[in-house]
Amino acid sequence: MDIRFTETAKVFLVLITAALFSGCSSNTLPTATVQPSTTTDINSYKYLIGAGDVLNIFVWRNPEVSGSFVVRPDGMITTSLVEDIKVAGKTPTELARSIEETLATYLRDPIVTVTVQSFVGPFSEQIRVIGEAAQPQAINYTQNMSLLDVMIQVGGLTEFADGNDAVLIRVENGKQKQYEIMIDDLLRDGEISANVDMLPGDIIIIPEAWF
Questions:
Q1: What pLDDT is stored for residue 1 in this prediction?
Q2: Of 43, 102, 103, 113, whose CB neighbour count within 10 A is largest?
Q3: Separation of alpha carbons 209 and 164, rounded Å
Q4: Boundaries of each SLBB domain copy (predicted)?
């Protein structure tokens, strides 16, 4: 009796599952929104504040509104005078001037200094390495960073990597462009000419070798 009930229940579950899936329509999710970096060459780089950064905001002669603030996931911070201040995507200097304008409503001639204590930055400013890197990850961009610097941070290639078929994807003028990069030549043969400058927002894809 118990065995028959179990088999019947299994058949019932299979029929219900099939009915649910047959009733579902197949939809395509929209493509991710491209957020290009504001840096177009290695000489124009400026650090932009992002969610997760820890900011030290000093207001001269007003210690009660000064302090350390963590940037929320929505790119805002909350101070004792102003609940929501948009900070993500600004340089520390731009943010200082913006806070001065905001605080001018409450304080006379405020003078503000902003420093970053802990760096995360916006996703648009990070470099992503995926595929056959030893430690695939997103890396915070540092001024004058090269391909070699990035590969050192991700621990090099796995034994299965095809480094010379790797590609670098970069957003230029609102469009994604793809470049060939020769990581095997750089890391395994010491071919320094294969080293290239990196920019914030670059994506490196390293495929697996076909043996």
A1: 46
A2: 103
A3: 10
A4: 127-206
- The dihedral over CA atoms of 100, 105, 109, 110, expressed in degrees to the nearest 10, equals -40
52-69 b/e (C-beta count within 10 Å ≥ 16 → b): ebebebebeebeebbeeb
CATH class for the region spanning 123-206: alpha beta
Q: Going by C-beta distance under 8 Å and a sequence separation of 6 or more, which residues neighbour residue 5?
A: none
Please check whether the two domains, 50-118 and 123-206, share a CATH topology. no
The pLDDT of 12-33, averaged and rounded, is 65
Residue (of 153, 152, 162) closest to 132 by Cα position: 162
Would you kindly state where each structural domain of the chain is located, as residue ranges? 50-118, 123-206
Task: Report CA 131 to chain centroid distance, whole Å.
Answer: 17
Q: What pTM did the predictor assign?
A: 0.80
- For residue 31, the model assigns a pLDDT of 82
| Mean pLDDT, the chain, whole residue set | 90
Q: Which CATH superfamily is domain 50-118 in?
A: wza like domain (3.30.1950.10)
Task: Please give the share of the chain, as a percent, with pLDDT higher than 70.
Answer: 87
